[in-house]
Amino acid sequence: MKVIETHNLSKYYGKSRGIVDLNLEVEEGEIFGFIGPNGAGKSTAIRTLLGLIFPTSGKGYVFGKDIVKDSKEIKKHIGFMPSDVNYYEKMDVAELLRYSADFYDVDCDARIRELADTFALDLNRKILDLSQGNKKKVSILQSLIHRPKLLILDEPTSGLDPLMQAKFFDLLRHENQKGTTVFFSSHTLSEVQKMCKRVGIIKEGKIVAVEDIETLRKKQLRKIQIEFMTAAEHMKLECPGILSPQAQGRELSFMYAGNMEDLIAALVNEKVADLLIEEPTLEEIFLHYYDDQNESGKEPQIQ
Q1: Does 303 reside within a domain?
Q2: Are 229 and 212 in a shared domain?
Q3: Of the N and C termini of the chain, which has fewer Cβ atoms inside 10 Å?
Q4: Long-range contacts of the stretch 250-256 (C-beta < 8 A, 24+)
């Protein structure tokens, strides 16, 4: 069963682009990643699926139901965690979560206590007094208290410390094992790689690829910076997979799309003073991989 399905779904704000001809399919029980640079259209796509804004054209379905005509029924079975949260600040956490539970007409008290214990969240504190990280925890609880069939997450880990991020990912896996489908939107590639088997990649409002994570890993670029003992050393470096090399003095920097063993072998006999290997930003991956793919109309050859 397809939990999410869209056909040429588009949203414009006047003449400004939101999303353009979006075609996506998310299967039941899947953890599906949705990635792209900031401003790519991720949040617009999510808000359109949720019925918070109306599409300009095209069709979208959640649980087989129309996202416009059946929006009220769809929302009963969705948990949504937005990228930014704003709450009634005079309420305490327990009041806010019970207020949210009333929309689903289910008794969530035991579930609230269970999740609050998991995330070490004080239910008696006022929203006004919470740090940004604790407000994020409230958002996690709010999205999960009614045990949704579909969980939609928009940049969910921003504001969470590493320990809470690890707990959050463990919880997502647990909920998924119990049958919850997860739609995970992020601009951080490493997060998506931890959680998802498939990923949709959006740029400038359009889907540029839907990839298996394993396929994406093979295409993964690395950001390399090498400092040689002398300025002339980098002139001799030859290795398949080096993209956009830039030399300055004794330093050579480039994107690398090849096998790391090949690069290390190429450096064995060179006089290297320092070596830095980093994960590139998603924007850099788009610049060096997906921009080339769009311009040529076909996939670039990566060694």
Answers
A1: no
A2: no
A3: N
A4: 251/225, 251/226, 251/227, 252/225, 252/226, 252/228, 253/223, 253/224, 253/225, 253/226, 254/224, 255/221, 255/222, 255/223, 255/224, 255/280, 255/284, 255/288, 256/221, 256/222, 256/223, 256/224
- What domain range includes position 179? 2-217
Exposure class string for 216-232: b at 16+ Cβ within 10 A, else e? beebbbbbbebbbeeee
- Please state, in angstroms and rounded to a whole number, the distance separating the CA atoms of residues 77 and 14: 31
Q: Are 130 and 270 within one domain?
A: no
| Whether 68 contacts 51, CB under 8 Å | yes
Number of structural domains (the chain) is 2
The count of C-alpha atoms lying within 13 angstroms of the C-alpha of 235, restricted to the half-sphere facing its C-beta, is: 4
Going by C-alpha positions, the residue among 45, 41, 87, 78 that lies closest to residue 203 is 41
CB atoms within 10 A of CB 47: 19
Asked, for residue 294, whether it belongs to a domain, the answer is no
Other C-beta atoms lying within 10 Å of the C-beta of residue 70: 15
Q: Per-residue pLDDT for the chain (303 aa), expressed as one digit of tens each?
A: 899 999 999 999 998 999 999 999 999 999 999 988 888 899 999 999 999 999 999 999 999 999 999 999 999 999 999 988 888 889 999 999 999 999 888 889 999 999 999 999 999 999 999 998 999 999 999 999 999 999 999 988 888 888 999 999 999 999 999 999 999 998 777 788 888 989 998 988 999 889 888 777 666 788 999 999 887 666 668 888 888 888 888 899 998 988 889 999 988 888 899 999 987 766 676 666 555 554 444 433 322
Residue 90 lies in a domain: yes
Decide which of 181, 196, 217 is a domain's last residue: 217
pTM of structure: 0.79
Q: How far apart are CA 272 and CA 264, in angstroms?
A: 11
Residues 229 and 190 in one domain: no
Is residue 147 in some structural domain?
yes
